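Open question from group meeting: does this chain pack into something compact, or does most of it stay loose? Before anyone orders reagents, we agreed to write out a predicted structure and look at it together. Recording both the input and the output here so the notebook holds the full record.
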Amino acid sequence: MTKTILRRSMHLTGLAAIFCVMAFTAPAGAQTPPDPDAMAAEPVPEHDPDATQAGKTALEHAEDLGDERSLRRRMALQALAEMGVDALPAREVVRFVAEHGGTPDMTDAATDELRIGALSVLATMRAPETNDMLRQMILDPQSLARGDSYATLLRVAGESGVDHDTLRHDLHGLVEAAPDHASHLMVLDALDTPLQSDLQEAVFNTDHDPAATGHFLANLPVLDFLDDADKVAYAVEHRAHAERQFNQTRDVLVAIGTDAALDFAMELDTGRGFARHQTISRFAAGPMPAAQVAGHLLDAARAEGEEREISQVMSSFEAMVRDLSNDAPSGEARADYQRLFTRANSTLITQGPGDAHAIVGIQRQILFLQRHEDLPLQPALDPVFDVLESGSVSPAVHNAAARSLQQTPARIAERDPAYFVDRAMDLLWAGDTPELAELPLTLLTSLMRTPDYVDLVVEAVADQIDPHLERWVMNPATAVAMFSGTLRGLDHSPVRETAAAVMGKALASPELDMDYLAPHFGRGGAALAFLEHNTVDGVVAVFTPVIFASEKPDNYLFNMDSFMQPMMGRPAWLQRDQHSLDLWIGFLDRVVALDDPDFSPVARQALTALR
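Structure tokens returned:
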């Protein structure tokens, strides 16, 4: 070692490039205490004592380690590393630097880097004492000035040929002899995974310092030597420390993902003003099954009493489902996540426990259906329709269901129109007043504005009306059928014929309510009853139940003159369609033959005009 090297300040960089060529030889006596001096007496590899690199010998390069210029120092270190075993003539100089560092005026960081760099050069020249020097430096709390410098030593040990059993033995001895230093090495998290885990378990089972406690709290999910219950118990035991690193602790509890972890997370969050549902929804990012998280969120919603608070819980629930759905590996998995939300809403609707819960559940259910067109309709809407059909719910809940369902009925129904029409018809038949009939009438006529659903609705009314013809409810059902008369593009279509048949039955019903139906007749009746807009079969279907009724009332509840007026129609299309004309004439002949004082004269007049 020359005085020049001792005198000059040194700063080493580029250590990563040097470590990648290190190839330590495992020491003899693998689990004996490190003894660099004894190992130094071992034979060295064959080498060329006169070798040069870039025109300089190993000793000449070693002289440059003390140069004030950082570039020269880096070049010297690199040159020695490239010489490999041929750098052995500089072994004593390099070893002295590795053991003692540089001049007193060097910074701690520069000194540590210099010593570790020199150790790496000893490794490249395959000096037999290298591994024991490495072990000795790791085990000595005073060997390096900076704590994080030990992380470099531990990584070097992991990449070198230092036997794992040897290093494990060293570290276990350190836990007993210098527990704080063992804790420090563990906290650096620089060992290979098996060694790191082994050291963690050894330190955990001793009285450890706050730094170790913080480390364990941050790494609880990966401490395989603890079960989940013990992990949470440790966090609870060190609550004060856990609260100091609150954000990290919360992430750790999520990663554990048990009910006990959730309970403790909620305790911590409550003290900081976080709502329970915010904490619960975070657990969907961990191993806790989504259905389990959903159950906790539902419990949180049911525990609230006001609509605003319940809605906030369900907003978190929906956001959680959205995030899970976006990351779902398949469409089926996405649908499963979405059904968690619809089932929760259904539970709020049916099992409350209060009106506020049912109202929020209804509103959220309808909004969710509007946003997700691929959701199955029946399980989501059954509870809403059940509310509307129930006579035991409060007016507030009933009104919430009615308002929500009326928002976009056609958009909701399009995924399963047959189901929607069936439930709306059930709701229609359950009503016996204009007020109760208003909602199903609105739902069904809204659907009819979509051409694809007109036939479905009108046929449903026609198929189901017969048992209800002697009930007042046949009036709103007829209004639904007559609504088809207000829609364009249906002239002379089968749907007009079907709707006309419904209107004819209604006119002959003893329950005909003209006060209720008159506006509907005015809007859609003409299109059903006049040949200008309907087929012969359709118009005949309007007249037949009244004209040929076996027992006519003395005075029908409608204007007879207006009713008979369509019989006088002679549209141009009828004159060109012989088959339809023959059908119409045949109908008029039947009416004339009936010899009815009201209808027969009009039919006779119509026949005369046609002929």
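Observations to bring back to the group:
The mean pLDDT is 89.
Strands lie at 52-53, 56-57.
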